[in-house]
Amino acid sequence: MQIDVGGAAPGTGYDRLVVSNAAQLAGALMVKLTNGFTLSGSNSLQIISSANCSGTFSALNLPAGIAVNYSSNGVFLVAAQAAPSPVTILSPQVTGTTFVFGFQTSSNQSYTIQHNLDLGTTNWQAVTNFIGNGSTFEFHFDVNNGSENYLRVREP
């Protein structure tokens, strides 16, 4: 299936396949952008509409910055989210029995801080998780347990 996208309006900017019954997806999807059109922000274009849509395309040929979302009622082209920036630890320090560090968050990015007592294992335990809001997050961890502690920040 090939879709040429030159605007955000179905029918004039791009073709939308409307299936009155169930649609079983398979094969390849190729998307071409025309007329200098770019998909950005929260825009989504429903390229297939169906009362019951199942399966996925086996191959995708998409322009940079475009992703495909599947739902039970169709297929949508969406602006791909940029990969999150790596976390940079800011001002790590021990104050009394508390280890403190911070890092800059990105809005709507999920973060998990994990803890491990032995780097020779994969036994990382979640300490906290949260959604960033674009500000600096400051984390405090009690280190008064008499053993070495290892922390990491993940962006799942």
Structure characterization notes:
- This protein is mainly β.
- The protein folds into 2 domains: 2-79, no CATH class; 90-154, Immunoglobulin-like (Sandwich).
- It is 0% helix and 54% strand.
- The chain has no helices and 13 strands.
- It has a 4-stranded mixed beta sheet, with no helix packed on it. The chain has a 3-stranded parallel beta sheet with strand order 1-3-5, with no helix packed on it.
- Strand 8 and strand 9 (98-104) form a beta hairpin.
- The chain is elongated, with a radius of gyration of 23 Å.
- The mean pLDDT is 88.
Using brief descriptors, characterize the structure shown.
mainly beta, 2 domains, three-stranded parallel beta sheet, elongated, Immunoglobulin-like, 156 residues
Which percent band covers the strand fraction?
A: over 45%
Low-confidence stretches: none
The shape, in one word, is elongated
Number of domains: 2
Structural class: mainly beta
**Amount of helix:** under 10%
The whole-number mean of residue pLDDT values reads 88
Number of helices: 0
Query: What distance lies between the first and last C-alpha atoms, to the nearest angstrom?
Result: 32 Å
Q: How many strand segments? A: 13
Strands across the major sheet, in which order?
Answer: 2-4-7-6
What about the largest sheet?
4 strands, mixed
Tell me the series of helices and strands, N- to C-terminal.
Answer: EEEEEEEEEEEEE
